[in-house]
Amino acid sequence: MTDCVLLPPAAGPSGFTVLAADDDEAVLDLLARILTRAGHGVLLARDGAEALRLFEEHRPDVTLLDIFMPRVTGLEALRRIRASWGDAEVVLVTGMAHTDLVIQALRHGASNFVEKPFRPSALLDQLEWSLLRRGLQREQACLACELAAVDERPGSR
To answer: Which of 84, 89, 99, 125 measures 20 to 30 Å from 14, CA to CA?
Structure first.
């Protein structure tokens, strides 16, 4: 089996793509089913290094990272993603939600935090906030482009 899987379509009916990274195959399968049923395009990674590669290639709308993964931890992946893409939406998922980990994750720019085991509805609620912010970022970028186009028209000033 390969290190990553792209479940078509790249962007689901929702118009959003979610990257999920976890070294636990059962959790990764559950995440894939929940996200696909919710209408999202899904990218899957089995460790932090693969998550970083997929993030760079696909720039998903939201990234779900397990904190404890081989090769590159979720916290390290979060740091690298936020260093390259400051507006990235990254939600950390872990079975060990110690207060110091939550604080550290939030300091490094995590959008949110989900504790395992999670109910699918709780995960989707947290994801919805990140998708809402992402949608607003897209809308803001579109409006900025439209405004720039108006400013460039002859006689617009």
So the answer is: 84
